[in-house]
Each structure stands twice: as structure tokens, then as C-alpha cells.
Amino acid sequence: MSNLNLRHNNVRQTSSVWYHIGAIVAILAWGASFIFTKILLPVLNPVEIYLLRCAIAYLVLLLLTKGHVKSHHYSHELLFLFCGVCGGSVYFITENTSLLYTSTTNVSLITSTAPLITAFLVGLIYKEERPNRWIVIGSVVAFVGVTMVIFNGASADSRVGFNLLGDGLAMLSAVCWSLYSLLLRRLSPFYSAMFITRKTFFYGFLTALPFLYTSESSFSWSVLADWSVWVNLLFLGLIASSLAFVVWAAVVGRLGAVKAGNYLYFQPIVTLAIAAVMLGEKITFMGLGGCVVTIAGIYVGESLARRAESRC
Asked: I want to staple 242 with a disulfide (CB 3.0 to 4.6 A). Which of 2, 57, 104, 311 is the partner?
């Protein structure tokens, strides 16, 4: 019997490894998406970029999940609506709009608090499933590392400082993502990751349409005749939206909102590395040190948490 249990644990651990790899794939896509979005900003505004990437993602997922349209219950449909708002329209639009009023340093730092907010909300709502203390400690250490990474480029930003509107929008964005993670937790037992993601983009698209009337636009259809624009949009729609969101929904369903959320700390590191290669931005010793601290925080937190769980 002990050999059977040992074999079962080994299979489970091997299976979990694939979910951790999936989380890394999603973070790589999202880290790169900041660069592709930045390239598009001179010709499209933040709302237009989101709507176009959302439409691409939804159409692809609709083709892949044809025949399954409705959810099991009206209450679930309401949860999907909230997913579209928290993980789609409001999340992306508040994050992008905040950059108009405050520094990229502030936005990156504030939105990186999402894993900590998620851990707090899980402990508050699901008291019987409070995060292991080592996960929380590792999370805090990783956040320190992210702060170092973000301040890698702080000296180049002339708007470093506090701005009530901009920083408030960035914090709203972080809270939205944390709520989205909790919503995924509620829906994952009943639906596939692909179905959840398709529903999220459907409602994300609908709830983003009103923002078109509040945003300045100089959109011209001739922009879409440029193949380079489509290269960036297809990456955002197919890779950073369709693939990454489907993978993330599966990861949260298996690893939980807190463990999965800790991988978000790697996002600024990915963006830093890609910006250095594609945009020629410099990496300082502060940035490199932050990368090491972030990775150490996640690794140590996960390792100690796993040991603590095995002793129980």
C-alpha cells in the first residue's frame, strides 16, 4: 500500500510540474505583451488595443469551443461577467490609463502587489485555506526583488512621485486581477479553462465598448493595412490573450490563486529582459539584484512550504 501511495504522489508531483511550467509560459507572454503594446501605442489608444486583441482572442476560442455556449446556471453567467470586468476591460484599461498620469515605475510596483492582495483575500474569505506562512514570506521577499527590478529604470522616468489619480487606477488594476483569480477558483471545478477564458473575453469586449466614448481617438482603418501592426496584434490576441489566459485558468484551478499568483512577480523581470533586447533599455546592478532576490523569494517560499506540507 505504501508503494502505491508513493507512486501516486510521484505522479501527482510530475503533473504539478507541468502546471508550474504553464505558469512560466503565461508570464513570459504577459511580460512580452508590455513591449508589443508599447509599440502599438503611437497608432492605437489603450482601449482600441484591448478591443482588437480581445476580439482576436474571442474568435479563436469560439472556433475551438463551438457547441458549448451557455453556462450551467445563471449565477455562473454573472460570475463570467465579473471575470470579463476584473480580468478584462477594467483591469487592462485602468492599468493602461494610469500610465497617462503616473510613472511606469509606480504602475509596475503597485500592480505587482496583486499576489499579496490575493493571499490576503484568500485568507479573509476562505479561512480554512489560509496560505502557508512560508508562501507569504516568500511572496514578500519576491516583492522586494520586484521593487528593485522596477527601480532599475526609475531614474529615466521624469514623473517618479505620487499621483492620486494615476496611482489609484494602478491599485484598482491590482485589486481587479486579484478578484479575477478568486473568480477563476470558483469556476474552475465546473468548466474547462478554454471555456472560462472565452467567456471572459466575451464580456471583457462588451464591457470595454463604453470606454471608447471616454477615450481620445484618431483611429484610421489605414492603420490596419500595416503588416507590422498585425504582427503585434496577433501576438497580443493569440499568445498573450488566448494561450496565456487559457493556461493561467488551468494553473489557478490546479495550484490555487496564491501559489499561481506568486509567478506574477516574474513579469517585470521578463519585461526588463525583453526591453533590453528589443528597445535597447539598460539593465543596472539594481535590476539584476532584484531578479536574483525575486527568484530566491519564490523558490525558498515554495520549497519551505512543500516541506511543511509533507510533515503534516
From this structure: 57
